[in-house]
Amino acid sequence: MCGIIGYAGKREDDSLEVLMNGLSGLEYRGYDSSGVAIANSTIEVFKREGHLSALEETLPARTVPGTVGIGHTRWSTHGEPSDRNAHPHTDCQDTVAVVHNGIIENFQSLRDDLAAAGHTFDSDTDTEVVPHLIEHELGNGASHTEAFRRAVDQLEGSYALAAVFEGDHTLYATRQESPLVVGLGEDGCYLASDVPAFIEYTDTVVYLEDGEFVQLDPSGMEVTDSQGNAVETTTDTIEWDPEDAGKSGYDHYMLKEIHEQPTAIRKCLRGRVQELEESVSIDSLSDVSEPGAVHFVACGTSYYAALYGARLFRERGIWAQAFLASEYDPGVIPVDDDTMVVGVTQSGETADTLSALRGANRAGVETIAVTNVVGSSAARACDHTLFIRAGPEIGVAATKTFASQQTALVLLSSALTGYDDPNLLRAFRKLPDQMQSILDRSRADAVAEAYRDADAYFVIGRGYTEPVAYEGALKMKEITYKHAEGFAAGELKHGPLALVTERTPVFALVSDNGMARKTIGNVKEVEARSAPVVAITDVPEMVDPYADFLLEVPKTHEWLMPILANVHLQLVAYSIANQLGRSIDMPRNLAKSVTVE
Ligand code: M6R
User: Fold this and answer.
1) Is 407 a residue whose pLDDT tops 80?
2) Which of 208, 243, 278 delimits the end of a domain?
3) Mean pLDDT of the residues in the chain
4) Ligand 1: does its nearest atom lie under 6 Å from the Cβ of 371?
5) How many domains does the chain have?
6) Of 17-21, 75-79, 424-428, which gets the smallest average pLDDT?
7) CA of 440 to the centre of ligand 1 (A)
8) What are the residues whose beta carbons fall under 8 Å from the beta carbon of 171, sequence distance 6 or more?
9) Which of 89, 149, 259, 405 could be joined to 128 by an S-S link, Cβ 3.0–4.6 Å?
10) 287: Cβ–Cβ under 8 A, 6 or more apart, which residues?
């Protein structure tokens, strides 16, 4: 789970700038070290442990000449974060530099063989075997193209790889279960793990497929398959504005993305809700019929969206369950002919989710990817796709994509079951403005000031708000670094209540869903233990007597209330983290896209 950028440009002087800009657009993928290599008559490598700012400090003031280069931002899998383990890695003679995303499973045996043949290694990484394998093949007389291919042929595992050679203006790359996309611009060609790396230079892209090799030079690209045959590629145009991938004046991407939620929801709904005809339709799913059962597979925030989605299907009379993707095994969990597996994944690159979806494909089950990224591995692995259209999300903490996932799952369940409640469709129309009103009147800073020094935070919800309780707690823990836990409100008294004290604020999601009284009963239980209560509610008059803070949610359809309520939790988590001075967009130990199992 790292970020790769590559550039084969027309001008000598801009490679370093393009690579550094690219890395800054990819830093969300990993940020424990980074590096760049530029090839000219020699290869110049700069790399450094820490955030990209640490690498910037090591760069020379001068321009580094060279039209072709690669860069990498790392999230460690083999070897601690350090200067020596940072990419790019080179061979013994420094004639080739390589960056890699993924895991080379057979690296130890390759390394042992190479060491026995006299190669010396400078790092603890699995990646470093690649430049040495290339060096070995060059020693056997192979051309750069052949040496790169032959080295890759010996690898087992998942990888996106890019290499540059001294004295060569061509960039060589390939992928296997790790994303790579080519950008075709006027000033040259780009290569990256994800589009934000080069969106400021071009919106014309080609997504590479597993097993394909690409060679980029300043005038264009050549794609071949694993046998070396030319491959005809499809060019896509990215519809984001480059500004979408910037901070637009906000202090953090996370805050910007929280504020983008009304727009994200509008985009998700556009063209899919026909209020007058009282129907929901999704073009990409027009040939999908109502399933007999639905298995959702997902991780983290997406799993909480999946819990919400499963409840929606169950309420419409279809048996549905959300599974943590890492625990899903269609060989063990019974699937019928009319079972459908839905992978919910913002990035479309989460290894656990992809593995579950591929397992479902092998079992012959119909699959749908609910994803944000066109051309992602999940989109390509599944029979059908439902794009959530949230736009690029850079902050590691998922925010707008969760809102868009929930919205998309309401649409999915409506479209597949023919459910057309006019109240729901009307409520959808108001949802973005209601969300905006929460953003405009947030009291999160005051809540954060009152409770930022708490020992822990608990979030309780019931019915449709239960998944949001888990998501709210996840947001809190990942960016504040404080313990937080979400519970089904009714479960509190079955054990967790022992943890509740005057130093553990409880955030209670109290929804007008016919169960408000029961949840208020749970609120009273924590209030009696002196815990501060922050009620997030669309029935403020009911919960007011028991709450220290009331964060109001406008009246909406019961299913949409959690989408609104979650905005309060996002803002409180953000404010606490901000007041505590945390690294909000890049929390410690985490990365946006988790491409290892
Ligand atoms: O890209 P995905 O939606 O598949 O990512 C799954 C999780 O890694 C992700 O939702 C993670 O939990 C969030 N970034 C946390 O905020």
Assistant:
1) yes
2) 243
3) 94
4) no
5) 3
6) 75-79
7) 27
8) 6, 7, 8, 68, 69, 70, 162, 163, 164, 189, 191, 215, 216, 217
9) 89
10) none
Please spell the DSSP secondary structure of 204-248, one letter per residue: EEEEPPTT-EEEEETTEEEEE-TTS-B-----EE----GGGGS-T
Q: Are residues 397 and 485 in the same domain?
A: no
CB-ligand 1 contact for 346 (6 Å cutoff): yes
Domain that holds residue 179: 3-243
CA–CA distance, 592 with 207 (Å, rounded to integer):
20
Q: Predicted confidence band at 202 (pLDDT cuts at 50, 70, 90)?
A: very high
Q: Measured in angstroms, how far is the CA atom of residue 275 from the centroid of ligand 1?
A: 32
Mean pLDDT of the region 214-224? 95
Q: Is the CB of 413 under 6 A from ligand 1?
A: no
500 shares a domain with 369 = no
**Ligand 1 atom at shortest distance from the alpha carbon of 347:** 1
Q: Which of 49-53, 109-113, 295-299, 382-386 has the lowest mean pLDDT?
A: 49-53
Element counts in the chain: helices (H) and strands (E)? 17, 26
CATH code at 593?
3.40.50.10490
CA of 20 to the centre of ligand 1 (A): 25
- Tokens 């959808």 belong to 428
Q: What's the rounded Cα separation, in Å, for the pair 68 and 38?
A: 6
Mutational pocket test of ligand 1: of 400, 574, 594, the residue with most ligand atoms within 8 Å of the beta carbon: 594
Helix, strand or coil, per DSSP, at residue 189: strand
pLDDT at 175 over 90: yes
Please indicate whether residue 350, judged by its CB atom, sits closer than 6 Å to ligand 1. Answer: yes
Residues 67, 210: one domain? yes
- Do both 364 and 273 map to the same domain? yes
Distance CA 324, CA 327 (A): 5
Ligand 1 in reach of 377 Cβ (< 6 A): no
Judged against a pLDDT cut of 90, whether residue 246 lies above it is answered with: no
Q: Would you say residue 14 has pLDDT above 90? A: no
**For range 190-204, the mean pLDDT:** 93
pLDDT digits (tens, 9 = 90+) for 510-567: 998 888 999 999 999 999 999 999 999 999 999 999 999 999 999 999 999 999 999 9
Does the beta carbon of 566 lie inside 6 Å of ligand 1? no
CA 159 – ligand 1 centroid, Å: 20
User: Are 211 and 99 in a shared domain?
Assistant: yes
Residue 147: the pLDDT is 98
The verdict on 35 and 183 lying in the same domain is: yes
pLDDT at 179 over 90: no
345 touches ligand 1 (CB under 6 Å): yes
CATH of the domain at 220: 3.60.20.10
Answer whether residue 433 shows pLDDT above 70: yes
Q: What is the 3-state secondary structure (H, E, C) of 312-329?
A: HHHHCCCEEEEEEHHHCC
Q: Which of 243, 276, 306 is the last residue of a domain?
A: 243
Q: Mind listing the pLDDT tens digit for each residue in 368-397?
A: 999 998 888 899 999 999 999 998 898 999
Residues 227 and 356 in one domain: no
Question: Does the CB atom of residue 343 touch ligand 1 within 6 A?
Answer: no
What residues act catalytically? Answer: 2, 592
Q: Report the residue among 28, 31, 194, 302 best suited for mutation to probe ligand 1: largest number of ligand atoms under 8 A from its CB.
A: 302
Ligand 1 atom 4: the closest Cα is on which residue? 345
What pLDDT, on a 0 to 100 scale, did the predictor assign at position 1? 65
Atom of ligand 1 nearest to the CA of 398: 16
**Does residue 299 have its Cβ closer than 6 Å to ligand 1?**
yes
H helices within 140-213, ranges in order?
Answer: 144-153
User: CA-based angle 336:339:342, to the nearest 5?
Assistant: 145
Q: Which pLDDT does position 81 carry in this prediction?
A: 86
Does residue 341 share a domain with residue 297? yes
Q: Which of 347, 574, 586, 595 to mutate to test the pocket of ligand 1 (most atoms within 8 A of CB)?
A: 347
